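This section describes the prediction task in plain terms. A model, or a person checking by hand, is given the sequence of a single protein chain and must write out its three-dimensional structure as a string of tokens. No templates, partner chains or ligands are provided. The sample shown here is typical of the held-out split.
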Amino acid sequence: MKKLKNISRKALISGIALLPLGGVQADPMNITATVLQVCELGTITDVAFGNLLPGSGTDASTFSTVQWRCSNGTNADISIDDGGNGNRTMSGPGIDTVAYSLYQDAGLTTRWGSIPAEVANVNGAGMAAFNSATVYGEVLHADYVDAQQGAYSDIVDVLITIN
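The expected answer:
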């Protein structure tokens, strides 16, 4: 029995507690996780003005959508750059171009761009489903009335940036 007492003392000194048969000991264990701020773009539909009729005297307008989602409570900005030509113009036959504008609102008053005053601020509600933002496009009749016939195009980059 004396030998058992020595083992028990050594066990207690080393920090190991020996419990009697049927005894219970409890120690806390921390459980932790961090939900990160994330955002992503989903489907982005093209801005397609269709056929422009120079003799019509009318401006052309259309819209598209940008899908996005962010983790709950994450604030982000969606911006759209000025395109491959750097000035929101579609290139066409030869050196001909047709200007266009992109807006955040159906009234075509708030330009959608890449400077702070022209970005759309969004607040994430979770990653379970995508939200949609509408992009409104316009080509003024004055910008295509004398354009050479043919196909015109440009490519813009849509970015989502966490604030």
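For orientation: The helical segments are 2-13, 141-144.
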